[in-house]
Please model this.
Amino acid sequence: MVACSLLALCGLKMPPANSQELNRRTTSQSAPEVNLDQVGNISLTLIHQADRLLADQQWDEAIEVVRGVVRTDGKRLIAVNAGKAKTEGPYYLTVQQYAQGWFASLGQRAPEALVRYRRQVDPLARRWFIEARKTGDRTLLQRIVDELFASSYGDDALLLLGEYGLEEGDYTAARFCWEQIFSQPRGGLAPDHQHAVHGRPFWMQLRLLNSNEAWAAVMPALQAAPAGRPWLTCPNSDLERAAIFARLVLVSVMERHEQRARRELEYLGRLYPGEQGRLAGRTGSYVKILEDLLARSANWKQVAASTDWSTFAGTVSRSATPARSIDIRHVPVWFQSLQHWTAEQELMSLVRPRIAEDMQGLLSCFPVIHRQVVYVNEQTRIRAFQLQDGSPAWNPADATGTIFDSGIARDQLLLEGKHFGVVRGTLTVHRNRLFAKVGSPVSVLSQRADPLVHPTGYLVGLDLDAEGKLLPGFPLRPDGPDWAFEGAPVIDGNQLYVGMRRRDQVRSHAYLACFELDSGKLRWRVLICSAETPGQGQWPEITHHLLTLDHGMLYYNTNAGAIAAVRAADGDIRWLTTYPRRTFRAGAAEGAGRHFFRDLNPCLIHRGILVVAPSDSQQVFALEAATGALLWQEQSGKTDDIVHLLGVVGDDLVASGDYLYWLDLYKGHLRRQFPDAVDNDLAAARPDPRGLGRGLIAGGEVYWPTRETIYVFRREVARDAAAWQLHRQIDLLPRGVSGGHLLICNDRLLLVTANRLFAFRND
Model:
């Protein structure tokens, strides 16, 4: 998909206005530099030259200059708000995407130039489109969108791609394709956009219209093309507007997003009340078809979700919310001992108390559950137990349940002296195959370390149908001592995706890589960003940055000043958003904010909204997943202890650390905090109760573990208002356990402490 903004050359549009606030609040400390693979000065000069040629009506010459820049630098990045203050947080697209915006803008800037451009590219676009429609080749359709967006066939390709996305249940992709056909679905509520919230989805702006008078005031703006066209849309599309917007409403209905569907349906009824056509297998009034479909959707059965817990946070979208609630009344039905890890030499832990865990007992293990078997990665080995009784999964003679042994003793992995980061053990199961990073947890060696004697970390892939036999091509090892895998990969089809780090003498480089599962062969590897990290080459670093996968798009929180969306099929960066970083200062509490304890913090995605809590920023913020545009940031200043993004219930984002928080998913407002806040000063008392471990959302309830109790919150509705109330408490001490990570599968609740794995019967 082509990413967001229409980019008029060099007079590049500002990113969403609220991104200025995001950066203003985070510039009180020095901001370490983030380096990207940006386009060079020669290409930037050529882009300026193309604009001047266009102004002089030298159409063909201007077009050829831009096409030439794409040929030489199409994969490199360009800031869409070039020339603005650095504190405003640049937003980046590839040069190829930028060029599509330039060509699309010709429809308004120089219509004759658009005619000439289409004479050049339409024959190829037509050939690709006819072949794609005949064979169902979506790759060709995507090439039209990527490379020939402003051709006469760009809108037709988007229409068909959206249909394919709808068929597959990829509602985010379908919506974004159709929104690019016309500008109105991305417009604002005023002709000049001054009163619109740039980047915020249109339906969220429609929520402001609560009366006929309010609608009447904005109807002229809604009926006209938005001034300035802040979003990339097809120039001069001849497709029927009502039909396209009816499809957008259909997506909301199919997604069961009732609030958005009702707002968009009202918009459709007011702007196109009498339009008719074929939709959802019926012919007639678009409005009547959708009204009937929306009414019937209330009785649709929910799709049964998998009961497995296949990776960190349950799913690769990092937002699992099991349907079954929890009620344990007994002592554990079984337990197993776990490898014990501490943070006694971890530099951040020496400055300030850890968040939601203890220095002497790290909650390092994050098990997965697959086909009634529990798998645990202890870094030196992987173990498997039967969910029902805790017995070894395959070899009864081995009471430890070990299914893979790295051959590296725990003592060999212990770091001598101080270091950054702590050990985390994650796994991913996909189609009865298990993947994990084992061996050394260190991702960046100190400059003093001897790489020839230090053990390395590597990826294993185990065939669970063959009792843990290594898959062909595994283990996967990094290219050398300067390279490291970040953590457990995510899997899609025959492709394995994983974050990688490379260290030189100056900075650390964050990459995304794709390997073929059947051979272990590297398919592609793309540089995301380069930046200084806390160790600065003086201390070893342990990092564990996980990817988020949603319908063919990878989202990567680098914790190094950049968030990126990368297309899984080919490794193309679709957008990259930066934010000002904070510098960790060892030995100084004021330079060691609680947010630095965020380590297992992948992006959480829910219905097209990407929530991010980077470790090098005190902010929690949300981006639109399709475009990277900033939707909101949490501004209370109270949430820098958030280390776990637990999921979404209704329109509430639930997150936790030492406290438990509820935030408005669409605005970022802090709705509730439990318990009440205490002074955040280092010398102040910690909250009571205090979070201990990662909770979960199940059956619409929030389960928050503390040392002695699991607190259960339920959303109570009264007088058209909803509020989260403490519903009950599950006492842990009488059961002989303390708090820790929670996960659930069928009739078992697992609780993971620093040194034991407990299983309870979920009654």
Notes: The first helix runs from residue 18 to 24. Confidence is low (pLDDT under 50) at residues 1-30, 82-88, 191-199. Residues 652 and 664 are 5 Å apart (CA to CA).
